[in-house]
Automatic annotation (TrEMBL):
<keyword id="KW-0067">ATP-binding</keyword>
<protein>
    <submittedName>
        <fullName>D-alanine--D-alanine ligase B</fullName>
        <ecNumber>6.3.2.4</ecNumber>
    </submittedName>
</protein>
<dbReference type="GO" id="GO:0005524">
    <property type="term" value="F:ATP binding"/>
</dbReference>
<keyword id="KW-0573">Peptidoglycan synthesis</keyword>
<dbReference type="InterPro" id="IPR000291">
    <property type="entry name" value="D-Ala_lig_Van_CS"/>
</dbReference>
<keyword id="KW-0133">Cell shape</keyword>
<dbReference type="GO" id="GO:0009252">
    <property type="term" value="P:peptidoglycan biosynthetic process"/>
</dbReference>
<keyword id="KW-0547">Nucleotide-binding</keyword>
<dbReference type="GO" id="GO:0008716">
    <property type="term" value="F:D-alanine-D-alanine ligase activity"/>
</dbReference>
<dbReference type="GO" id="GO:0005737">
    <property type="term" value="C:cytoplasm"/>
</dbReference>
<feature type="domain" description="ATP-grasp">
    <location>
        <begin position="30"/>
        <end position="107"/>
    </location>
</feature>
<dbReference type="InterPro" id="IPR011761">
    <property type="entry name" value="ATP-grasp"/>
</dbReference>
<dbReference type="GO" id="GO:0046872">
    <property type="term" value="F:metal ion binding"/>
</dbReference>
<dbReference type="InterPro" id="IPR011095">
    <property type="entry name" value="Dala_Dala_lig_C"/>
</dbReference>
<dbReference type="GO" id="GO:0008360">
    <property type="term" value="P:regulation of cell shape"/>
</dbReference>
<dbReference type="Pfam" id="PF07478">
    <property type="entry name" value="Dala_Dala_lig_C"/>
</dbReference>
<comment type="similarity">
    <text>Belongs to the D-alanine--D-alanine ligase family.</text>
</comment>
């Protein structure tokens, strides 16, 4: 698992503008969360990944409330692979280069059993 990435904005919502304008958001990786919240988010992300039958790399997005509650927003079963995207930022925080990240993602393409309806 990769370190958590926190995206925050002073806007009312983390909207399209905040997502695409670096001046409207702050990213912290690894996220500065209490250890128990971080652990619970990571465990939940892994559980969600497995529950939906995801394979390889996925990114589970959460809303973490000020009281520590964490809500799953969505699962990205094909997260963006741009060199400056969320997944690459998380990998870099774990000491994984972009080239190595792409190699690892590609390696998972050959480990999935064939689809059986």
């Amino acid at each position: 698992m990769l370190p958590l990435l926190a995206c925050e904005t002073d806007r009312a919502f983390y909207d399209y503008e905040a997502k695409h304008d670096q001046g409207l958001r702050r990213e912290t990786c690894p996220a500065a969360l209490p250890e128990d919240v971080e652990q619970r988010v990571m465990e939940t992300a892994l559980r969600v990944h497995r529950l939906i039958g995801a394979h390889g790399v996925s990114r589970v997005d959460f809303l973490v409330c000020s009281d520590g509650r964490s809500l799953v927003l969505e699962v990205n079963t094909v997260p963006g692979l741009s060199e400056h995207g969320n997944l690459a930022t998380m990998a870099a925080a774990a000491g994984v280069s972009y080239v190595e990240l792409i190699k690892r993602v590609l390696d998972t393409a050959f480990t999935k059993v064939s689809y059986v309806p």
